[in-house]
Amino acid sequence: MNEIVAKSSLKADAPEWFPNNSIMTQRVDSLSNSLQNRLKIHKRHGNDSNHSQNHSAAAIPNIDDDIKRLKQIITTLSRDPGQFDNLLDIFMETLIPYFNDLMTLFTVAKILVEEAITDPNFRYSGARLCFHLEQNCPEFRAELPLRCEKHLLENRNMHNVLLFIAELYAQLPHVAVYGKLLVDSFKRLLSIGGNENVKCICQALKLTGYSLEKSNKNDLDEVFEQLENIKNAVGGNVTTLLNTVINLRYSNWGHSGDSTDSEYEIDNHVYEGVTNTVFYQPDGNVLTNEESEFIASYMHSNEEYASDNSDPDDLCDPEPEMDEEIQAAFKEFVKSSKH
């Protein structure tokens, strides 16, 4: 044993090693612990007109620190989108004190949009953050499309701007505003032409085409007419992508052709009714928006089973290799096992 210890390269005084994931978790926990009381302070004093101005000012944290924290959250989500659920509450708690501060909200919108445009890894998470933020802040909801439109006109990287707007269109409930931005951008890129512009349009359509078919059908007809006309003008992988999108539209964007508009409206109404209902956990805490949305989608996906009045034993299909005697014995076994 002494000989093994003598030859070992391990040292008792070596620094302790932690995997990268544990360091990331520690950072998230640290952020969460530092902000636990802020939402309580805002709820307690935010709408109380009897509090003095000095006390209210003291309750509002330093904006520079919170902007720095916002950027830290964005950096973390860009590297590890799986941390979204852990960081969402921290994100909201950080910004709640500024819901009545238009200048700060404009800054937040600017940061979120610019980061989502610059870093494609943050695009999806950025749209999700915008969804949760605008649900609670009408001022942010009004500023966000204006900020996107500004970038469409001024930003050199119009492709990334368009793809971020496509994410917003797919995730936010008011499709009309972002739908108009999308189709106007499609037409603008088509007027310029080129493989990269067509590629960007096709990428956005794969994400938004089915919904645009319902909200902006006439504009979409015009866009696809132009896409059909330029099929021979593009080349390489773009040709394949363009044909894929055209065929996707012919197949109703991968959705069943049996569903009608009225059925869609009914399903959407039921879905909104469930997601707008307040659900509670066994411990009395309110379910989050995402948990409520999961319940709505889960209920919808199980309708066929809820309406199935057939014998559950019929779901058990014996192997075709069984002869009739063995199949009968198998069914008898299934029935007896229920008792």
UniProtKB/TrEMBL annotation:
Signal peptide: none annotated. Residues 310-320 have a biased composition (Acidic residues). The keyword Calcium does not apply. SUPFAM superfamilies: ARM repeat. Residues 67-252 form the MIF4G domain. GO terms for biological process: regulation of translational initiation. Keywords: Cytoplasm, Translation regulation. Its main location: cytoplasm. The keyword Cytoplasm applies. It comes from the Eukaryota. Residues 301-320 are annotated as: Disordered. It is found in: Cytoplasm. One of its GO terms (cellular component) is cytoplasm. One of its GO terms (molecular function) is translation activator activity. PANTHER family: EIF4G DOMAIN PROTEIN, POLYADENYLATE-BINDING PROTEIN-INTERACTING PROTEIN 1. This is MIF4G domain-containing protein. It comes from Acanthoscelides obtectus. The lineage of its organism: Eukaryota, Metazoa, Ecdysozoa, Arthropoda, Hexapoda.
